[in-house]
Amino acid sequence: MKDETHKSAHPPCEESPAEIKRRRFLEELCIGLGALCATILALPVIGFLVAPLFRKTPFAWRGVGKLSQFAVGKTVNVAYLDASPLPWAGVTAKSAAWLRRVNETDFIAFAANCTHLGCPVRWLPEAELFMCPCHGGVYYNDGSVAAGPPPKPLTRYGVRVVNGEVQILASPIPITS
Ligand code: FES
Q1: Is any ligand 1 atom within 6 A of the Cβ of residue 135?
Q2: pTM to 2 decimals?
Q3: Is 163 left (phi over 0), alpha (psi -120 to 50) or beta?
Q4: Three-state SS string across the chain, please?
Q5: pLDDT of residue 12
Q6: Does domain 60-170 have CATH number 2.102.10.10?
Q7: pLDDT-based confidence at 86, cuts 50/70/90?
Q8: Is the CB of 143 inside a 6 Å radius of any atom of ligand 1?
Q9: What pLDDT is stored for residue 1 in this prediction?
């Protein structure tokens, strides 16, 4: 004999069309708000990743000394401030180049960093060569590669003389590999 006394205390609830519609609306609202929050949280990360693609390469003319302090035919190391130093950079905001006075009016400036992995190159006046101490890279006095792993010549910077001051067109350190 069937026991009719143990029927469920909670009969299945039937939702009305209005309740179903309200529940769906709340579900969609939750999903929408979640997506909005995720987008807001992700924006700084996306900005950080994408910003370098749109940042212009900074260039700036930097004074490196009076015209009179450079002797014709000499190649000397000069220091200057980066084109766009970071506020917290400290001494790392300083950069360097090799500057040669070719004649009374003309200069050539070479990047002080090797085109292989960026080590600072040294100028050897007796040999008329630039030498890289890291992996034996050697450059001729015109900056072209003489030996070793450097893939291309030393980068040159623009040089100008303004009101008796020699200036170098500072730009980011060129490293290619
Ligand atoms: Fe100069 Fe490698 S960094 S040869």
Answers
A1: yes
A2: 0.68
A3: left
A4: CCCCCCCCCCCCCCCCHHHHHHHHHHHHHHHHHHHHHHHHHHHHHHHHHHHHHHCCCCCEEEEEEEHHHCCECCEEEEEEECCCCCCCCHHHHEEEEEEEECCCCCEEEEECECCCCCCECEEECCCCEEECCCCCCEEECCCCEEECCCCCCCCEECEEEECCEEEEEECCCCCCC
A5: 61
A6: yes
A7: confident
A8: no
A9: 45
Tell me which residue has tokens 């000397």.
76
**Residue 114 CA, ligand 1 centroid: distance in Å:** 6
The predicted-structure confidence for 137-176, as pLDDT tens digits, reads as follows 999 999 999 999 999 999 999 999 999 999 999 887 665 5
Tell how far the Cα of 113 is from the centroid of ligand 1, in angstroms.
Answer: 9
Q: What span, in angstroms and rounded, lies between the C-alpha atoms of 142 and 154?
A: 8
Q: Any idea where the domains of the chain sit in the sequence?
A: 14-55, 60-170
Q: Which is higher by pLDDT, 24 or 13? A: 24
Q: Is the CB of 101 under 6 A from ligand 1?
A: no
**Ligand 1 nearest-atom number relative to CA 136:** 4
Q: Is the pLDDT reported for residue 70 higher than 80?
A: yes
The finding on whether 116 has its CB within 6 A of some atom of ligand 1 is yes
